[in-house]
Design a protein that fits this description.
The complex is a heterodimer of chains A (248) and B (226). With 248 residues, chain A is of the alpha+beta class. Chain A contains nine helices and seven strands. The longest helix of chain A has 16 residues, at 232-247. In chain B, a hairpin with a 2-residue loop joins strand 1 and strand 2 (146-147). The N and C termini of chain B lie far apart (51 Å). Chain B is mainly alpha-helical and 226 residues long. Chain B has eight helices and two strands. A two-stranded antiparallel sheet of chain B has the order 1-2. The chains are: A alpha+beta (248), B mainly alpha (226). The structure holds protoporphyrin IX containing FE (HEM), iron/sulfur cluster and FE2/S2 (inorganic) cluster. FE2/S2 (inorganic) cluster is lined by residues 56-59, 61-66, 82-84 of chain A.
Amino acid sequence: MKLTLKIWRQENADTKGRLETYNIDGIEEDMSFLEMLDVLNDKLVREGTEPVEFDHDCREGICGACSLMINGEPHGPDKLITTCQLHMRRFNDGDTIVIEPFRAKAFPIIKDLIVDRSAFDRIQQAGGYISVNTSGNTIDANSIPIEKDKADMSFNAATCIGCGACVASCKNASAMLFTSAKVSQFALLPQGEVEAADRVLNMVNQMDKEGFGNCTNTGACEVECPKGISLENIARMNREYLSASVAG
Amino acid sequence: MAGILSSSIARKVAMALSGIFLVSFLALHFIINLTSVFSEDFFNEASHFMGTNPIVQFLLQPILVFGVIFHFVMGFVLELQNRKARGDVGYAMYKGSANSSWLSRNMIISGIVVLLFLGLHFYDFWIPEMVTKYVEGDMTGMHGDTFRYYEETVHKFAGDPIRTGLYVLSFVFLMLHLLHGFSSSFQSVGFNNKYSRGLKGFTKAFAIVVPLGFAFIAIFHYVSHL
Ligand code: HEM
Ligand code: SF4
Ligand code: FES
């Protein structure tokens, strides 16, 4: 396959970036999108120019590192996958592909296509945990019976990989889907109940502090989320937040 | 209030509650207006009641005015904050249509059209009402020996294709606004469960029937006086 790539290049957070055009040949349909970028970078290095910086780690859809806005959609045109799971057979010979970083005020660019998503870490640190006594008297989690549907919903919420596609796709750069998944995964379980009120208040507070936008229920996040995290989680977080505020 | 509204979720909930309040007002307004198509007398009686009842005038009306102002001011605040959150550099390519509806992404546009319409509507009906009742002090609701409401309403549309057209156009935008807004407000207040699908159906039906019904009433009075 022959492709024309328009890729965002930016030295660092303080400099202005621009879209650069690259022509690339010899791309196979079976390559993943990231392998295609590897091929490009190999070529750039041989030519003595700087390779394109992009995030990746597991390359099997579980770590959330790979990002990229591809032709105007986070993780490209397919649903329920990450960029590392996107394959070049999805594109046609001669296509032009626009590749940009995930954009949001709260995700400043580090270099080229790499953005700083540590805002998510700080939201998680604000309350995305449970405190368990590990002094030797720990009660085995499995000894607490949990209804099947709640366990399933909690598990589904917990599959969020923190990739940030929800923020990238949202016209408001809202982090509600991410935060609500992290709140819900605990809110649905008895283990999470103890710290439930503080958790939701602190995590939402941190989310606002980081400068993410206000949700207007466009639903873009749910559609673009590689893990299919549902908007029900946002409604649950809103309920949790309201009851914690009223009780608080 | 700034304290309560300092969190994004509180702002969302306030937006939703003011929206639902406006929708309930809209429903009442619609029912009363609809009677003008069927019965001049009933419409007159209902209008007179609403126009002179102290609870309506001095409790509900101020709440309504506050609700409208709160709603659109909050709408602008959210829009500005959200633009800021998007960052300084926009996407060169952004396929919003791949994941969300145009309506949901452009509530501010449909909202601004509704706001402009409200300006016209207040100029047409509300300000003259206030002047007649509270400036001139005429609380009788009479013009000659009949109630004035029906005549005044019909008079606004009869022989005025431009005003009728503007009203109809505005109702289309109101429909667009409510098609997303009404169901969205339930999600905002945390209501998302097995009843949500049914509720969504109801909100969509409401969002189409009521604005188009208003448009029908305007066209009806225009056409029946051709
Ligand atoms: C006066 C002009 C108006 C403006 C500028 C305006 C603006 C907006 C904006 C920007 C939103 C989106 C905010 C969000 O989703 O968070 C919104 C939502 C909404 N609007 Fe309006 N609006 C206006 C009038 C109305 C009227 C007259 C009604 C009802 C009769 C209404 C009902 C709603 C509802 C139900 C929502 C959804 C709230 C939510 O999603 O939580 N709006 N409005
Ligand atoms: S909610 Fe979905 S899109 Fe958002 S961070 Fe989690 S996995 Fe990624
Ligand atoms: S590299 Fe881990 S999810 Fe794509």
